[in-house]
UniProtKB/TrEMBL annotation, chain A:
Sorted UniProt keywords: Cell membrane, Membrane, Transmembrane, Transmembrane helix, Transport
Domain of life, per lineage: Bacteria
Cell location: Cell membrane
Residues in ABC transmembrane type-1 domain copies: 61-250
PANTHER family: PUTRESCINE TRANSPORT SYSTEM PERMEASE PROTEIN POTI
Transmembrane parts of this sequence: 12-31, 57-89, 101-124, 130-150, 228-253
Gene3D superfamilies linked to this entry: MetI-like
Protein name as catalogued: ABC-type spermidine/putrescine transport system permease subunit II
Membrane topology reported for the UniProt record: Multi-pass membrane protein
One example of a Gene Ontology biological process annotation: transmembrane transport
InterPro entries: Bact_Polyamine_Transport, MetI-like, MetI-like_sf
TrEMBL record, chain B:
GO biological process: polyamine transport
First-listed, main subcellular location of the protein, grouped into a coarse class: periplasm
Transmembrane segments: 7-25
Lyase is among the record's keywords: no
Name this protein carries in UniProt: Spermidine/putrescine-binding protein
Record-listed spermidine binding positions: E44, Y92
GO molecular function: polyamine binding
InterPro entries in UniProt: SBP, Sperm_putr-bd
Length: 267, 357
């Protein structure tokens, strides 16, 4: 038994090395004064300075974050109510078909979603830009939120709701004081998933940007045409660190969510 | 529940704060005026300082966006929903855009700096009298090679590629016009040839090159040449300049028999919202000092004679990137051959590629 666990550890380490090596390699070279990724000369911050002195790049970064936060927020609100609707649906076949429709959106390729949005927006005359990107990000995030919240709802004992109703809770009370506190961890997971999906989306955004509005992934793609400059490496480094902080933040949030349910409800 | 409400409020506050930061940056980087000029250019194809300078001089605010291929750019403009005031397509894309009625004519009286442009680059076949376009940068197709991996061969002639010693050493760009054009050029024919016999001869000639070809690839060619994994590559001059900047061993040559001459041009798309500003921008970019600074930054060849006078002699006298008139006479711009003829070229190129195995 001990032998297998040792082997398993090595295997795990290997997998993580393969997953993280390219990113760390990229970040390492963001400190290279040589200007290329061929050989490491000396340590420098100059590429990070270049990122921060490029106002346009910073504005794009801020745009990306605004779109991610807003789309994740709205998608979470819509998605939670969607999940509630699905769970409390009485007609079983209708529930299953709606759930399947939701899943189809998750597995359908981004390119298809992006192209359809482009056609839709131009048909109904929405100007491409912030609004079109935000709407499409909300749209592709909703199914993810639904899928994250659903298991929590199904896990909930329905007698909790009956008990609350017996004790005189109104429908609003049941929702805000029983159901939502119970599924809170699911809501947060859904929000963070939507956030990361929005941050790293390229394909959909590529179709629906325009009029000077871009997100980071699309901008980096255009920059890469003239060869990868180390500014991109520096930017990647910054994003990686921010993501790491987000994950750590999420870890603490989810740790709190693990407290006994009884305590959580009383909040 | 309280926690969720608090989180929602926090997120909204963060968004509002970010929005104001963005607005502040927007105003401080440009002008407060709402008259924006939206520019749609290739990535890394302008000195960003010049955008700031244009904002200060003209009072317009610049919105800058980038694309990565002529096709992507044309789709965005054709679909509508955008209002780009300036775009920078390559010459064949200009012909397509003209045919699809996507361009506005340029008012030459608003572009006095047009006189700075070398007449050689004006009134070309893809846009007679420069009705719709103004030259931005230009370049050629040629051979980039690594003398350290060769025994002293040079590439003044296309014929040198057929040398038996180059077995499995040559990289070709994956473009039918470039490769078939090279075949035609090596035989002394025009690279716009529509003569079936000439094209067949070119294909036969290319098939003899097969043993020397290592691969037919796209943009990866830069990395392969820089890392010295191949000795010779057929590529565009701009890409060659990039490679040479990263690996000083490399050298570039335009064969004497002739080659392709390409242009990227500024145009005003039909969907433009600020035509006045677009003209102002074109005129600004053609200014001698501005064009010189831009060429220094971007590294491609500028068609602006007034700018060349201001630039480093060492750069502009480099025949590899600023070929002399004499050499340029051998260079040809791709004509729009029409869909049918383009199909023939693609067919021949496919035949050549199939012969590779």
């Amino acid at each position: 038994m001990e032998k297998t666990s040792k082997f398993a550890k090595i295997y795990l380490a290997l997998v993580f090395i393969i997953l993280y090596a390219p990113i760390l390699y990229l970040i390492l070279y963001s400190f290279n004064s040589g200007g290329t990724m061929n050989s490491f000369d000396t340590f420098t911050w100059e590429h990070y300075a270049a990122v921060f002195s490029d106002t346009r790049l910073i504005m794009i970064l801020i745009n990306t974050v605004i779109v991610a936060l807003l789309s994740a927020l709205i998608a979470t609100i819509v998605g939670v109510f969607g999940a509630l609707g699905i769970v409390f649906m009485r007609n079983k076949s209708l529930r299953n078909s709606i759930l399947s429709l939701n899943n189809v959106l998750i597995v359908s390729p981004d390119v298809v979603i992006g192209a359809s949005f482009l056609i839709l927006f131009t048909m109904i005359g929405v100007k491409l830009g912030f609004a079109s990107v935000l709407i499409s990000h909300i749209a592709f995030s909703i199914p993810i939120v639904v899928l994250m919240v659903l298991p929590k709802l199904q896990e909930m004992n329905s007698s909790l709701i009956d008990a609350a109703a017996d004790l005189g809770a109104t429908r609003k009370d049941i929702l805000t004081r029983v159901i939502i506190p119970f599924i809170k961890p699911g809501i947060f997971v859904g929000f963070f998933m939507a956030l990361t999906y929005s941050l790293d989306d390229f394909a959909v955004t590529f179709f629906v940007t325009g009029n000077g509005f871009t997100t980071l992934s699309v901008e980096i793609y255009s920059m890469a045409r003239a060869g990868i400059t180390l500014t991109i490496n520096a930017l990647t480094g910054i994003i990686f660190v921010v993501t790491l902080l987000l994950v750590i933040g999420y870890y603490f949030v989810s740790q709190r969510g693990k407290k006994p349910v009884g305590l959580g409800v009383r909040k | 529940m309280k926690e969720i409400t608090r989180s929602v409020i926090a997120i909204i506050l963060v968004c509002i704060a970010l929005f104001f930061v963005n607005d502040y940056l927007n105003k401080s980087s440009g002008n407060a005026s709402n008259d924006a000029v939206t520019i749609y250019n290739w990535g890394e194809y302008i000195d960003p300082e010049l955008l700031t300078q244009f904002e200060e001089e003209s009072g317009y605010r610049v919105v800058y966006e980038t694309f990565d291929s002529n096709e992507a750019m044309m789709t965005k403009i054709e679909q509508g929903g955008t209002s780009y005031d300036i775009a920078v397509p390559s010459e064949y894309a200009i012909e397509t855009m003209k045919e699809n009625d996507l361009l506005l004519p340029i008012d030459h009286s608003k572009i006095p700096n047009l006189t700075n442009v070398d007449p050689y680059f004006l009134d070309l076949s893809f846009d007679p009298k420069n009705k719709y376009s103004v030259p931005y940068f230009w370049g050629t197709v040629g051979i980039v090679y690594n003398p350290a991996l060769l025994d002293g061969q040079t590439f003044e002639s296309w014929e040198a590629l057929w040398d038996l010693s180059l077995k499995g050493q040559i990289l070709l760009v994956d473009g039918s016009r470039e490769v078939i054009g090279m075949g035609l050029n090596s035989l002394g024919y025009s690279l716009n040839s529509t003569d079936e016999n000439e094209l067949q001869e070119a294909l036969d000639k290319l098939n003899k090159l097969t043993p020397n070809v290592k691969a037919i690839i796209g943009d990866e060619v830069t990395q392969l040449m820089v890392n010295e994994e191949a000795a010779v590559a057929l590529t565009w001059s701009g890409q060659a300049a990039d490679m040479m900047w990263e690996n000083e061993e490399l050298d570039f040559s335009i064969p004497q028999e002739g080659s392709n001459l390409w242009f990227d041009n500024m145009v005003i798309p039909k969907t433009a919202a600020n035509v006045e500003g677009a003209h102002a921008f074109i005129n600004f970019m053609l200014g001698a000092e501005v064009a010189a600074q831009n060429a220094d930054y971007v590294g491609y060849s500028t068609p602006n004679v007034a700018a060349i006078d201001l630039m480093d002699e060492e750069v502009t006298s480099d025949e590899r990137f600023y070929p002399s008139e004499e050499l340029r006479d051998n260079l040809e711009v791709y004509n729009n051959l029409g869909l049918e003829m383009l199909g023939v070229y693609n067919e021949l190129f496919l035949e050549f590629k199939m012969g590779m195995n």
